[in-house]
Amino acid sequence: MSITGSYVRVAASDLERLTRDPAAFMEASMASMTPGWENDPSTQPWISVEKAWAALGYLLDKATDGTIDVVFGGTPIGEDWGFGPPRYLTPDEVRQAADMLSRTPFDRLAAHYDARQLADAKIYPGHHAEDDLRGLQIDYETLVEFFAVAAKSGDGMVLALM
Question: Domain 5-161 adopts which CATH fold?
């Protein structure tokens, strides 16, 4: 079983409902995650960075000022899903994250990429190769755009490892 990183946009007006009844909110959010979806950050209410979440988190830690953690940050909500509870970012935190991401070109992350170091640090999924960089770039660019769209819309966001 793989652990994947998912991001769900949440309208500011739904954040109270999310914190009041996280199980019901997450059930409704999960229902929108249907097979056949396209990882299009400009049109979809959610995206997945698949198994790249840990490597992206590791590289962002090295390449940014740590303004906000877009992989492990946020406020925990609900029950532990086996890989920690989902977490949410407020609209203000999403704006801060979008700003940080927009100022961090992928080249800055790539400068810190070393497959052996990631494997030695036991960064999920545990095996890395030099040619993984292109896939990480695609996932990173999707994440950057998704945060930008959410920030522009004034949305919060749920981060979940599933």
Answer: Hypothetical protein yfbM fold (3.40.1760)
